DNA sequence: TAGATTGTTAATCGATTAACAATC
DNA sequence: TAGATTGTTAATCGATTAACAATC
């Protein structure tokens, strides 16, 4: 009845909670209070409690949170309790690097195939994953229950390929191309714009240098 | 006198403005109003005007914004008018993929060297960029005016290596390792946590599926 | 039970949007 | 000049933090 819409800001933080809880588990910590966690993560305890309460009462008064339980619950929210079949479009350096990344498999993201316009790459494999020509994409998606497509190709072809992918039934696009995709309702896009990321770093570096240039500038 | 602190949200948007303005330039557009740009970028015109005004009056009443001028100004803010020397720590797949990325060079980010703990990689090159052993890092940083270090190595060594880099004078870290870095004031960190990114995608996909499962669920 | 800590409401802060006077 | 569009102030919205009653 009451659809409590969860804000993007909260969702953005979920994977980070998951990471910290995983580390706590590894070091054998069984329970943790929002206060302790807040010190480790450098966020307020209030925010932690607010965030978690969006999804239900995961804690217990007077006790705190059970680390394993909370870890599993957040994992479930993030869809990490299920396998997701992934394809990578674009078999260049970045595409191959992602295909080679074992950590994704551990979290349930299984790379099933790589597609590239370059016919010379066809037939090769990366970590046992076949590189195939674009023509086989549709059949492959339909037959292998592919939910997520990773776009590691030039922006010039990204839009067109994304449209194809969606028409073949892909519901989620992990977009590394330097362009924004317009997708219909019900299709998810997560952008990784690396060039924008390094520009933000460059901005901060430049601002800092400007403010501190010519040695130590005395503050009046 | 009045230090107008610019919010992180604004800075996050700057590179995207830059991208759109670059595309407008390429297609020969000379001027644009906040209204037109807002339609293309799917943000409000009000936000565009507010954002840009943080940095000064880039527009002109009755006319709008000169595309080339605005592009250059934002580029300058982002520090793209200067060259930045970059090293990559970790010569694995991702490190090599970034080294191979020509778009960075175009923006003034010059990869000068790659460092890896694996001595077998030493002496090899990627796109003419030498891979060197970690022992040479300090000297290389000091002699080549390195400002930015890219961390593409396992989280287990990331913290330690970051500390080293900072002590050698690196002021900005582009962190791809799955961990948060604690750095002193004056050192910039930009995180690219790919596993968190794909988890957000997975979250949205999973939520959407839950809401629409068992075919079309009628809404009362 | 007493102490601890959550869940949750209320207060504050910041960011976005709307409105319009300034001005090209 | 009249029309267009910015720069900027005010209003709204949303997110974070503080506070505390509920409860384990």
TrEMBL record, chains A, B:
<keyword id="KW-0804">Transcription</keyword>
<dbReference type="Pfam" id="PF06971">
    <property type="entry name" value="Put_DNA-bind_N"/>
</dbReference>
<dbReference type="GO" id="GO:0051775">
    <property type="term" value="P:response to redox state"/>
</dbReference>
<dbReference type="GO" id="GO:0045892">
    <property type="term" value="P:negative regulation of DNA-templated transcription"/>
</dbReference>
<dbReference type="InterPro" id="IPR036291">
    <property type="entry name" value="NAD(P)-bd_dom_sf"/>
</dbReference>
<dbReference type="InterPro" id="IPR003781">
    <property type="entry name" value="CoA-bd"/>
</dbReference>
<feature type="domain" description="CoA-binding">
    <location>
        <begin position="79"/>
        <end position="180"/>
    </location>
</feature>
<feature type="DNA-binding region" description="H-T-H motif">
    <location>
        <begin position="16"/>
        <end position="55"/>
    </location>
</feature>
<dbReference type="GO" id="GO:0005737">
    <property type="term" value="C:cytoplasm"/>
</dbReference>
<dbReference type="InterPro" id="IPR036388">
    <property type="entry name" value="WH-like_DNA-bd_sf"/>
</dbReference>
<dbReference type="GO" id="GO:0003677">
    <property type="term" value="F:DNA binding"/>
</dbReference>
<feature type="binding site">
    <location>
        <begin position="90"/>
        <end position="95"/>
    </location>
    <ligand>
        <name>NAD(+)</name>
    </ligand>
</feature>
<keyword id="KW-0238">DNA-binding</keyword>
<protein>
    <recommendedName>
        <fullName>Redox-sensing transcriptional repressor Rex</fullName>
    </recommendedName>
</protein>
<dbReference type="InterPro" id="IPR036390">
    <property type="entry name" value="WH_DNA-bd_sf"/>
</dbReference>
<dbReference type="Pfam" id="PF02629">
    <property type="entry name" value="CoA_binding"/>
</dbReference>
<comment type="subunit">
    <text>Homodimer.</text>
</comment>
<comment type="similarity">
    <text>Belongs to the transcriptional regulatory Rex family.</text>
</comment>
<dbReference type="InterPro" id="IPR022876">
    <property type="entry name" value="Tscrpt_rep_Rex"/>
</dbReference>
<dbReference type="GO" id="GO:0003700">
    <property type="term" value="F:DNA-binding transcription factor activity"/>
</dbReference>
<keyword id="KW-0520">NAD</keyword>
<dbReference type="InterPro" id="IPR009718">
    <property type="entry name" value="Rex_DNA-bd_C_dom"/>
</dbReference>
<keyword id="KW-0805">Transcription regulation</keyword>
<keyword id="KW-0678">Repressor</keyword>
<keyword id="KW-0963">Cytoplasm</keyword>
<comment type="function">
    <text>Modulates transcription in response to changes in cellular NADH/NAD(+) redox state.</text>
</comment>
């Amino acid at each position: 009845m009451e659809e409590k819409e969860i804000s993007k800001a909260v969702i953005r933080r979920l994977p980070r909670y998951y990471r910290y809880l995983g580390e706590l588990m590894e070091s054998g910590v069984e329970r943790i209070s929002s206060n302790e966690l807040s010190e480790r993560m450098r966020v307020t305890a209030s925010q932690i409690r607010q965030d978690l309460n969006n999804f239900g009462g995961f804690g217990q008064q007077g006790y705190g949170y059970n680390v394993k339980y909370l870890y599993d619950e957040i994992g479930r929210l993030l869809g990490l309790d299920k396998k997701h079949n992934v394809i990578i479009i674009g078999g260049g350096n970045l595409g191959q690097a992602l295909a080679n990344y074992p950590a994704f498999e551990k979290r349930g993201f299984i790379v099933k195939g790589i597609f590239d316009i370059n016919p010379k790459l066809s037939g090769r494999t990366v970590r046992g994953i076949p590189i195939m020509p674009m023509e086989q994409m549709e059949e492959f998606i339909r037959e292998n229950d592919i939910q997520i497509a990773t776009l590691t190709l030039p922006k010039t072809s990204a839009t067109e390929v994304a449209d194809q992918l969606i028409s073949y039934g892909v519901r989620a696009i992990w977009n590394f191309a330097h362009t924004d995709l317009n997708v219909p309702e019900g299709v998810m896009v997560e952008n990784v714009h690396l060039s924008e990321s390094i520009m933000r770093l460059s901005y901060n570096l430049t601002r800092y240098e400007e403010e501190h240039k010519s040695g130590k500038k005395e503050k009046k």
